[in-house]
Amino acid sequence: MTHGLASYHFGTRETMIQEALKWAVEHTIETTHLAASTDGLGSFAADVPRTLSESPEDAVFQYDLLLRALRTPGLLDDVRKSYDDYVAAIAASLNGFGIEGDAVARLVFAALDGLTLQQLLYGDTNRIEEAIAVLRQLLSLLAASSGTASASGASDEVVLSQ
Questions:
Q1: Eight-state DSSP code of residue 97
Q2: Which domain holds residue 138?
């Protein structure tokens, strides 16, 4: 895309980057089925490895922006917002499975974020599929530990009944 065309459509380079990041996050959430999965916990994040193998450039773009944001504070808010969007999508899914708490959603996102890096590094979907299956088993145990897991009060502490 030429500079003139980018300027015409987006106004500034920063706006173009913001819009590209917003699209990448929304596209990733949609294609990996992270948000409010209606198929149950067994399908949660099941499409992450396939999506990464088909379109690794989307994840590389997001990680590249993350690294740039650490050196360019002007991008930091946008990258943080993208991470918050991922956590919110995961929290919505987890709530549907009977698991509540922002801390759990952040932990699940951190696991998926790290697994994404590993798939980009190793290029092995089997490793990631196995790890996501274990993550789903852990979430299933959390959800089943009395029928639900819920956050207590205003804290992020997850309370499980014994």
A1: T
A2: 3-159
